[in-house]
């Protein structure tokens, strides 16, 4: 089945065509980062308007790249939540209208299921069951995955998401939005021994996270050096390194605990923060003593993209799922509410 996927939940317009027989046929991504960077974060109204401008041209683009006509598409998947309501509406309206015109099924897809299944697009995909660490701009969650749609929440952040903490720390350090990659870049030149940041909630039992205290700790450290206008480039790098090390360590400790608790031997990481090189380099060796293997998506499929939505939608459309007559968009939508795909 050839499925067109449309992602418009936040500040990236992503479109892709996934074929359940032949794999990914084409994809296109347009990032609105330049539009929002001047405001230091995503402006919802600007995001919706830009999705309106970009979605159709990107659909034309992927069709021509795949050498297909619109009539070759057999199903349409669009992100129906969680995300910004106005942004979600654009992808949903385009996707559903197209499907209606073509007489093919449409299906709203959970954005985080898209992230979670993105590692399945690799040449050597993980096999279920596994523990998934979802680390993105809006989520930090550990999920037990028994099958597609069979998800149990093991733990999550009680405050900021890891990506959000990266973005806020970047702001404190006067680094551009979105901050994750910029903090990581500075951390490369940072001295790991200069500061010792706390590893939040590791001494408490359970699998929840908290990143807001780490953010405050970063600010306090910055102030102890005289504030952003007084510190040197090396200070910025050292703080970035201490922060990154603390986040990476905390994530690793909780992943280890999740594997021990579930008895599973596979850890799959996904979402924007899983693009972080230090995290990617550290997780495998840290979990190897448990006999566990680690999987993560190619960097382009860590952050938002159309391919993950096309893939997730294709699995469900193939199993016969499709939208009812009403448009059901969910800006907030717990992943564990999804139903398992009947195979
Ligand atoms: P959600 O998926 O939870 O709705 P989102 O779609 O905004 O949120 P993603 O697109 O998955 O999130 O990821 C974006 C986040 O990933 C940002 O917070 C960004 O700073 C972070 N990020 C991207 N690359 C890196 C990196 N190399 N290191 C750390 N963080 C990163
Ligand atoms: Mg984004
Ligand atoms: Fe995302």
TrEMBL record:
GO biological process annotation, one example: tRNA threonylcarbamoyladenosine modification
Main localization of the protein? cytoplasm
Quote the InterPro entries the UniProt record gives.
ATPase_NBD (IPR043129), Gcp-like_dom (IPR000905), KAE1/TsaD (IPR017861), Peptidase_M22_CS (IPR017860), TsaD (IPR022450)
Tell me which residues bind Fe cation.
111, 115, 304
Localization: Cytoplasm
Its Enzyme Commission number? 2.3.1.234
Q: Which cofactor does it need?
A: Fe(2+)
- Taxonomy, superkingdom: Bacteria
Q: Which molecular function GO terms apply here?
A: iron ion binding; tRNA N(6)-L-threonylcarbamoyladenine synthase activity
Q: How is the cofactor bound?
A: Binds 1 Fe(2+) ion per subunit.
The entry's substrate-binding residues are 134-138, 167, 180, 276
Pfam families reported for this sequence: TsaD
Q: Which parts of the chain are coiled coil?
A: none
> What Gene Ontology cellular-component terms does the record carry?
cytoplasm
Q: What class of enzyme is it?
A: transferase
Alphabetical UniProt keywords:
Acyltransferase, Cytoplasm, Iron, Metal-binding, Transferase, tRNA processing
Q: Which residue positions does the secretion signal occupy?
A: none
Catalysed reactions, semicolon-separated: L-threonylcarbamoyladenylate + adenosine(37) in tRNA = N(6)-L-threonylcarbamoyladenosine(37) in tRNA + AMP + H(+)
Q: Cross-referenced SUPFAM superfamilies, in alphabetical order?
A: Actin-like ATPase domain
Q: What does this protein do?
A: Required for the formation of a threonylcarbamoyl group on adenosine at position 37 (t(6)A37) in tRNAs that read codons beginning with adenine. Is involved in the transfer of the threonylcarbamoyl moiety of threonylcarbamoyl-AMP (TC-AMP) to the N6 group of A37, together with TsaE and TsaB. TsaD likely plays a direct catalytic role in this reaction.
Tell me the NCBIfam families matching this sequence: gcp_kae1, T6A_TsaD_YgjD
Q: Which family does it belong to?
A: Belongs to the KAE1 / TsaD family.
Could you identify this protein by its name?
tRNA N6-adenosine threonylcarbamoyltransferase
| UniProt source species | Aequoribacter fuscus
The opening ranks of the lineage are:
Bacteria, Pseudomonadati, Pseudomonadota, Gammaproteobacteria, Cellvibrionales
- Recorded name of the encoding gene: tsaD
């Amino acid at each position: 089945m050839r499925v067109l996927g449309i992602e418009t939940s936040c500040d990236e317009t992503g479109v892709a065509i996934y074929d359940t027989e032949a794999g990914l046929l084409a994809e296109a991504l347009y990032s609105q980062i330049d539009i929002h960077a001047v405001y230091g974060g995503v402006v919802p109204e600007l995001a919706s308007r830009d999705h309106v401008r970009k979605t159709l041209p990107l659909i034309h683009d992927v069709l021509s790249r795949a050498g297909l006509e619109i009539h070759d598409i057999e199903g349409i998947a669009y992100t129906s939540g969680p995300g910004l309501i106005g942004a979600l509406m654009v992808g949903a309206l385009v996707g559903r209208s197209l499907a209606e015109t073509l007489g093919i099924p449409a299906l709203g897809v959970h954005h985080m299921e898209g992230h979670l299944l993105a590692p399945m697009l690799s040449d050597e995909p993980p096999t279920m069951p596994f523990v998934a660490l979802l680390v993105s701009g809006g989520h930090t969650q550990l999920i037990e995955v028994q099958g597609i749609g069979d998800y149990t929440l093991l733990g999550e952040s009680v405050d900021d998401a890891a990506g959000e903490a990266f973005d806020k720390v970047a702001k404190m350090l006067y680094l551009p939005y979105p901050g994750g990659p910029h903090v990581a870049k500075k951390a490369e030149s940072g001295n790991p021994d200069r500061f010792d940041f706390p590893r939040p909630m590791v001494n408490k039992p359970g699998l929840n996270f908290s990143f807001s205290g780490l953010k405050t700790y970063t600010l306090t450290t910055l102030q102890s050096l005289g504030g952003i206008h007084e510190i040197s480039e090396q200070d910025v790098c050292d703080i970035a390194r201490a922060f990154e090390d603390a986040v990476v360590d905390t994530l690793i400790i909780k992943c280890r605990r999740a594997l021990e608790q579930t008895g599973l031997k596979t850890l799959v990481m996904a979402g924007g923060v899983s693009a972080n090189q230090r995290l990617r380099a550290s997780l495998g060796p840290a979990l190897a003593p448990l006999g566990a293997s680690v999987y993560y998506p190619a960097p382009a499929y860590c952050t938002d993209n159309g391919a993950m939505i096309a893939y997730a939608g294709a699995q469900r459309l193939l199993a016969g799922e499709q939208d009812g007559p009403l448009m059901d968009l969910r800006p907030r939508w717990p992943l564990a509410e999804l139903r398992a795909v009947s195979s």
